[in-house]
Design goal:
Layout: E1 2-10, H1 38-47, E2 54-56, E3 59-64, H2 68-76, E4 83-88, H3 94-105, E5 110-115, E6 119-120, H4 125-135, E7 141-143, E8 161-165, E9 173-180, H5 185-194, E10 197-199, E11 204-207, H6 208-218, H7 220-231, E12 234-236, E13 239-241, H8 244-248, H9 255-263, E14 279-280, E15 287-288, H10 293-299, E16 308-310, E17 313-316, E18 322-325, E19 330-333, E20 338-342, E21 347-351, H11 359-367, E22 378-381, E23 384-387
Parallel strand pairs: 1-2, 1-3, 1-5, 3-4, 4-13, 16-18, 17-19, 18-20
Antiparallel strand pairs: 5-11, 6-15, 7-9, 8-9, 8-10, 11-14, 12-13, 20-21, 22-23
Helix pairs in contact: 3-6, 3-7, 3-9, 6-7
């Protein structure tokens, strides 16, 4: 029997999906398609791998203290899922976040790490990862991309990359030659032309103890600081809170920079028992990192003119455009390749090819000390919500 503990890293602010995604209500809690949020979809999919030989344990959600009630409310809608929320007092990137989950799950055997920030449809790929762990594969491996649509088709600088080597195995998996985080435009172009690189979708299957050993080898400072914060935790079920003072002192780094890049470096010989027992899978062929509005358009239900619309919309002579209307009618005439997102207090209009740069607006709003980068007009609270219809210096 394989005991799997699902781990959902539920952090980030999703600035490139402004104005729908904001610091107080980030993208993982948004419903961008269907009737459930990205967060809920991730939890449901990873829990669906339960089988005769796979026991799925309690889900571990690592999220920000400020988002605890958003996460809890959405979890309550998933009646069959039991979860513990590990609350970060401040953001310290994904390496400390995964370490919190590993410390919680150490006694549970293998841990399935799954990112809630991506829209992923489960496939037999997860079964491949399980088989690799059973076989204790000596090298990191990834599955061949079977859908050319999601193979790197542009020099993206916002994604990490993984280089394959050798011939594929019987399940289409490759040995990993190199992990490379967000490259320059010139390097990304070289990766694209090389043809041996895939986008890193950031999905891992590994033992909790394996991650802790790897982190101890490559970033002992993060390992020690996170262990200290964990040792001083408080528990108020379903919430677990590491020490705020100790956690704030942890160096900020990602899983990829802290461990995956150095573990695949030629100078690393795999020293340390269990450190090479990572099973990794290229799941991008069946999903998409919804990091910007153009990605939402790509995975959306396009009409005959290539438009993706949601809400009250009316289009004439409009092509290849995404329109998201929240509170009123949005009409377009004679436009092409646009992103139009309407909310009750902000409207975004952008060229679809420039959607990665929406975060520049968020930075500008922050510098101007405007609330539109943080909160919607309608603000959710544990007791319900409030809607601000007007506000000046001495009244709200």
């Amino acid at each position: 029997m394989n005991n799997i503990t699902p781990v959902i890293l539920c952090g980030g602010s999703g600035t490139r999906l402004w104005p729908l995604s904001r610091a107080g209500f980030p993208k993982q809690f948004l419903v961008l398609s269907g009737t459930s949020s990205l967060f809920q979809q991730a939890i449901e999919r990873v829990n669906s791998i339960a089988a005769e030989d796979i026991a799925v344990g309690e889900t571990l959600v690592v999220t920000n203290e400020e988002h605890r009630f958003l996460a809890l409310d959405q979890l309550r809608e998933l009646k069959s899922v039991s979860a513990t929320l590990l609350l970060e007092p401040v953001g310290r990137n994904t390496a400390p976040a995964l370490t919190l989950a590993a410390l919680q799950a150490t006694a549970n055997g293998k841990t399935l790490f799954w990112s809630s920030r991506r829209q992923i449809k489960l496939s037999s790929t997860l079964q491949l990862l399980r088989l690799q762990l059973q076989q204790k594969c000596p090298r990191c491996r990834f599955r061949r991309n079977r859908n050319p649509r999601h193979h790197p088709d542009s020099p993206e600088t916002g994604y990490g990359y993984i280089k394959r080597q050798g011939e594929p195995g019987q399940n289409g998996e490759y040995t990993v030659a190199q992990f490379a985080e967000k490259p320059s435009i010139a390097t990304a172009q070289a990766y694209l032309e090389n043809g041996e690189y895939a986008w890193n979708s950031g999905m891992f299957v590994l033992k909790a103890s394996t991650w802790l050993k790897a982190l101890q080898q490559f970033r002992p400072d993060i390992a020690a600081a996170t262990q200290l914060a964990w040792s001083e935790k408080t528990v108020d079920a379903p919430f677990v809170r590491p020490s705020k003072a100790a956690f704030s002192a942890i160096p900020s780094d990602s899983i990829d920079y802290a461990v995956m890049e150095p573990i695949s470096h030629p100078s690393h010989t795999g020293g340390g028992e269990g450190i090479s027992q990572f099973a990794w899978c290229r799941l991008q062929q069946v999903g998409n990192d919804l990091g910007a509005w153009d990605a939402v358009w790509q995975v959306g239900d396009q009409d005959v003119n290539g438009n993706v619309t949601q809400g009250d919309t009316l289009t004439t002579d409009t092509t290849n455009t995404l329109i998201h209307a929240t509170s009123r009618l949005v009409g377009t005439v004679g436009v092409n390749n646009l992103i139009i997102v309407e909310t009750s207090d902000a409207i975004l209009v952008a060229d679809r090819s420039q959607s990665q740069h929406v975060k520049k607006l968020v930075i500008a709003l922050e510098q101007l000390k405007r609330e539109e980068h943080t909160l919607h007009r309608k603000v959710h609270r544990p007791w319900g919500w409030y809607d601000s219809i007007d506000e000046e210096e001495r009244f709200k």
